[in-house]
């Protein structure tokens, strides 16, 4: 949906998100959904993070669901890198060519998904490499509004055992 190839080398996802159009659109109310981020992101009304110290069964269920859902996203990145091995190795040479190659790989990957291209065996094997453990990153203090919205979400959606 949104790809940013502005920086050379490894840049944390939260920095990229902080400076992308998708974030601006969420803040402007263009979307009504919720994004999930790891603890390297601030908790906001539209971006939920895991609870660092869950204390109730509802909070535990929320964290388990959060982890399972985020793992799905991480597996998507793994499949993308398996389909385009140049993304696994890293790219050397001209930065502008590397940026264009990354964007082209993203477009082609999305086209393959839309066309229901078969996943080759190398991709299937890579799916299992991701664990169900939370990814812990540097902590950013959550916003009060984000905490309130996340709390309301947990109270509304995780009161029973249907999310186990």
From TrEMBL:
GO terms for cellular component: nucleus. InterPro entries: HARBI1-like, HARBI1_dom. Keywords: Hydrolase, Metal-binding, Nuclease, Nucleus. This is DDE Tnp4 domain-containing protein. It comes from Parnassius mnemosyne. One of its GO terms (molecular function) is nuclease activity. Residues 2-110 form the DDE Tnp4 domain. Belongs to the HARBI1 family. It is found in: Nucleus. Its cofactor is a divalent metal cation.
């Amino acid at each position: 949906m949104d790809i940013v190839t502005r920086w050379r080398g490894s840049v944390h996802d939260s920095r990229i998100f902080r400076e992308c159009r998708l974030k601006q659109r969420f803040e402007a109310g263009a979307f009504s959904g919720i994004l999930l981020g790891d603890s390297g992101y601030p908790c906001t009304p539209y971006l939920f993070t895991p609870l660092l110290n869950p204390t109730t069964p509802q909070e535990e269920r929320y964290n388990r669901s959060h982890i399972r859902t985020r793992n799905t996203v991480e597996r998507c990145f793994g499949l993308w890198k398996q389909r385009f091995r140049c993304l696994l190795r890293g790219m050397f040479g001209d930065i502008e060519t590397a940026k264009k190659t990354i964007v082209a790989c993203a477009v082609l990957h999305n086209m393959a998904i839309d066309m229901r291209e078969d996943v080759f065996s190398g991709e299937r094997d890579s799916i299992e490499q991701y664990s169900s453990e939370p990814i812990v990153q540097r902590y950013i203090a959550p916003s009060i509004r984000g905490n309130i919205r996340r709390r309301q979400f947990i109270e509304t959606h995780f009161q029973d055992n249907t999310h186990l």
